[in-house]
Write a structure and sequence with these properties.
It is globular, with a radius of gyration of 20 Å. It is α/β, with parallel strands linked by helices. It has helices at 38-55, 94-98, 111-122, 182-185, 187-200, 205-209, 219-227, 231-255, 271-280, 304-311, and strands at residues 2-8, 12-18, 24-31, 63-70, 73-75, 80-84, 89-92, 106-110, 130-136, 140-146, 149-151, 259-263, 294-297. Helices cover 34% and strands 23% of the residues. Bound molecules: zinc ion (ZN).
Length: 320
């Protein structure tokens, strides 16, 4: 049997045929083209999935289940997407609609949750009993795995770490609140801090690297300049590491997972970021003499969503 994994993004829908160990056997993609009726988007999803199965030499009968990762939240019982801001979806019957094309069990969960789940099956957190995955991208997503299974909360609204308030009356957030964690720990935050620093310091390497154009600032440019020793960029980087340590300390204090995994665009800074966080984090945690979560960079990259979604249908291995 194989598992179908579907990773729904704002620009593209990635679909993979995945085996029980999380290996991708066949894959493809179709554009999301946001703004169309959801029936049309799910039609393309179904047709694309059927095409990938056929090209890979599989039939619908070979499929054990279908899993879908969405940038939003879903009702696990009804298979209805409750909220998906990027797609403009509210109360979309994704499971029922997709089953018109592939009549198999359909599981739906949050994209960061399934990415974290994938890492626990065939990525950096294999063998961990508990882990928390953080996607550091335009926003900050969170995924929790406990006892080897994804945990989205009793009502599907858990693990939204990006919207934990870090600063009462702080930076306005896209969610309508103020001072949310993702305003300080996302790529967007690095860009905002980088722009401010650059405009204040026209003599900095960061200013030169962006040609004096604030719109050209990216998280990568800021971190690259910091790595090269540009004082202004180093300050921004250190501030970012400070914010990340506060975020990680929040996770440690609340959940004490075995591992916390950093994924998403910002995590591409790799060891430069990881080393700084590992050095600083011990100062932040509450119980300094006790061991706490190992911090690691995600391993599966852009495939994590597909793999983790596919594995939603895999039943946990019974112990004993
Ligand atoms: Zn928010």
């Amino acid at each position: 049997m194989v598992y179908l994994g579907i990773d729904v993004g704002g620009t593209g829908i990635k679909i993979g045929v995945v085996d029980a160990e999380g290996a991708i056997l066949a894959q493809g993609e179709t554009p999301t083209l946001v703004g169309r009726p959801f029936e049309d988007i799910i039609h393309d999803m179904g047709v694309c999935a059927l095409g990938i199965l056929e090209r890979g030499g599989y039939s619908v009968e070979d499929v054990a289940s279908v899993g879908i990762g969405i940038p939003g939240i879903a009702d696990q019982n009804t298979g209805v997407v409750i909220f998906c801001t990027n797609l403009g979806w509210r109360d979309v019957p994704l499971r029922a609609e997709l089953q018109r094309y592939i009549d198999k069990p359909v599981y739906i969960d949050n994209d960061a949750t399934v990415a974290g789940y994938a890492e626990s099956i065939c990525g950096v957190s294999v063998g961990c009993h508990s882990s928390v995955f953080l996607t550091l991208g335009t926003g900050v997503g969170g995924g929790i795995v406990i006892a080897g299974r994804p945990w989205s909360g009793a009502h599907g609204v858990g693990s939204e770490i990006g919207h934990i308030p870090m600063d009462i009356d702080g930076e306005p957030c896209t969610c309508g609140n103020f001072g949310c964690l993702e305003r300080y720990c996302s790529a967007t935050a690095v860009i905002r801090m980088g722009r401010e620093a650059m405009l204040q310091h026209p003599d900095s390497d960061l200013y030169a690297a962006c040609g004096g154009d604030a719109n050209k600032v990216t998280a990568k440019i800021v971190f690259d300049c910091a790595r090269e020793g540009d004082d202004v960029s180093v300050k921004v980087f250190r501030r970012y590491v400070h914010y990340m340590c506060l975020a990680l300390d929040t996770v440690v204090a609340f959940l004490d997972p075995e591992m916390i995994i950093l994924g998403g665009g910002v995590s591409k800074a790799g060891n430069f970021l990881l080393d700084a966080i590992r050095e600083q984090l011990p100062r932040y945690v509450l119980f300094k003499t006790r061991p706490f979560a190992r911090i690691e960079i995600a391993r599966l990259g852009a495939d994590a969503g597909m793999i983790g979604a596919a594995m939603l249908g895999k039943q946990p291995v019974k112990e004993g």
